[in-house]
Amino acid sequence: MTRTDNKPLFRNRSAARIALLDERARGMRVALTASEALLWGRIRGRRLGAVFRRQVPLLGRFIADFLAPAERLVIEVDGGHHVERARAYARRDAVLAGAGYRVLRLDAALVMRDIEATVSRVRAALER
Length: 128
Description:
The chain is of the alpha+beta class. The protein has one domain: VSR Endonuclease (Endonuclease, Chain A, 3-Layer(aba) Sandwich), CATH 3.40.960.10. It is built from five helices and four strands.
């Protein structure tokens, strides 16, 4: 990934922790959920005018479902067990916002039910 600023992608995290996140992210790229795979098919390859990466380690603490690095936009597809973790995700979103990222959370059911509406939400987030 080409960086235009000098801010480190990882902050004060051990090499072992970073390696563990990289390994987990690699495994998650292979095993996308159905909703993630559907969305990935619509946003990959600059289809929306932005480069997206999938399952990206960030800040040495998190793995983002999708990241548009140049736009500093993180997309998270939430479903099932994610609903019970709303408070933890709010804290995570605050940390990411503090690092200059915008977070768009999408419900997995919406992705599966109405991919066009989902893509419209991603486009709108890119335009901000």
